[in-house]
Amino acid sequence: MEYYVVFVTVQSEKEAGNIASVIVKENYARCANIVKGVRSVYQWEGKIEDDSEVLMIIKTTKGAFPALAEKIKELHSYDVPEIIAMPVIDGSKDYLDWLDGD
Q1: Which residues on neighbouring strands pair with residue 55, listed in sequence order?
Q2: For 51-84, what is each residue's pLDDT tens digit?
Q3: pTM for the whole thing?
Q4: C-beta pairs of 49-52 under 8 Å, 24+ apart in sequence
């Protein structure tokens, strides 16, 4: 089985909590960490933006990622949400078994 850590930034802690609750409850992911106090500097529509955001760190499987990304797009308030998946190279066997749903 292959695993992903997925990074998603959102506008507020409340939005992160709402998304996290849905994706975990509906089995798109096994876990979502919510990290407050992220400062994001980015270019949007020709302007440099400097905003406070909340980072979600989501753990899932490669197979679940396409549906997870679609669900996040459905629930997210941004026109173009950040949804970036990174492969997990290795990890604790017990934790990876848990990600499998075992």
Answers
A1: 9, 35
A2: 999 999 999 999 999 999 999 999 999 999 999 9
A3: 0.94
A4: none
